[in-house]
Amino acid sequence: MDREALYREILEETRELARRAAHPHRGTLHVSPETKSLLEGAPAARQKAQAATSAPESPAASDEREAALAELANRVAACRQCGLCESRRQTVFADGSPTARLVFVGEAPGSEEDRQGVPFVGRAGQLLTDIIVKGMGIRREEVYICNVIKCRPPDNRNPSPEEVVACEPYLIEQLTLVQPEAICALGAYAARSLLKTEASVGSLRGKWHDYQGIPLRVTYHPSYLLRNPADKRKTWEDIQAVMQRLGMPIPA
Ligand code: SF4
User: Fold this and answer.
1) Atom 3 of ligand 1: nearest residue by CA position
2) Which of 152, 164, 172, 225 is least surrounded, with the fewest CB atoms within 10 Å of its CB?
3) Is 70 exceeded by the pLDDT of residue 178?
4) Looking at domain 61-245, which of 3.40.470.10, 3.40.50.150, 3.30.420.10, 1.10.3470.10 is its CATH number?
């Protein structure tokens, strides 16, 4: 585990201990003068740590990363590794910033995505955009959005295990190149593919997972939320956890 991950884990555990030790009604906590002075210095230390982790990349490194992603997108566009190449209009590679701190990973393109060549542009895409823009308070262009599968399965059927295996190396390469600080897996396919598990979204959400050293949070796919709007609240809790992890301000 790297130092940053260790620091976050210690911070999470400390928060949990503080929550448990707090006054049941007022939520206040008695600490020693030494701890008080350490806590008062914490925001400045945190700001310093954040500045270090999100230091702007040099233009040359950024260009190199963009070029590598463009080259990967070209390879995907020519891919015929599975039968989905027969029915696709075009491949759907990604949308957003190659230097994003947060990557959303979905399942596979739908008909609108297949038509436009951009992930999450149909009704579910609009909901994801609302989550990013209205909920998180940032522009959609500031995150990176992609799918496990790059070609539309006919009639929006679920991708087969063979198709996931065939396409997964492209996702792994994308995530290696983007190097986000956090990943949000949208729905069962993304979660299962990234975490190599058969567990349900319901049992995977609400806690942090690890994908190759990158913290990963699981939440519901926007298509599911369109059918089950009552679960939007749970997704908002998941998104808030991601924002907290990234040190983003959470709207009241
Ligand atoms: S789904 Fe993936 S592996 Fe299959 S043809 Fe498309 S890009 Fe290639």
Assistant:
1) 167
2) 172
3) yes
4) 3.40.470.10
Question: Can you name the residues that pair with 104 across neighbouring β-strands?
Answer: 145, 184
> 214: CA distance to ligand 1 center in Å?
25
For residue range 78-105, what is the model confidence (pLDDT) as tens digits?
A: 999 999 999 999 999 999 999 999 999 9
- Which pLDDT tens digit goes with each residue over 147-160? 999 999 999 899 99
- Domain range list for the chain: 61-245
Place of tokens 């350490």: 38
Separation between Cα atoms, residue 171 and residue 225, nearest integer Å = 24
Does the CB atom of residue 76 touch ligand 1 within 6 A?
A: yes
pLDDT, position 13 = 54
Atom in ligand 1 nearest the alpha carbon of residue 163: 4
For ligand 1, atom 6, the nearest C-alpha belongs to 151
pLDDT value at residue 25: 40
Sheet holding 144-147, edge to edge: 94-96, 144-147, 102-106, 182-186, 214-219, 209-211
Q: Is 167 in the pocket of ligand 1 (CB under 6 A)?
A: yes
Query: Ligand 1: which atom is nearest the Cα of residue 159?
Result: 1
Range 99-116 average pLDDT: 97
Distance in angstroms (rounded) separating the CA atoms of residues 143 and 105: 11
Atom 2 of ligand 1, nearest CA residue: 167
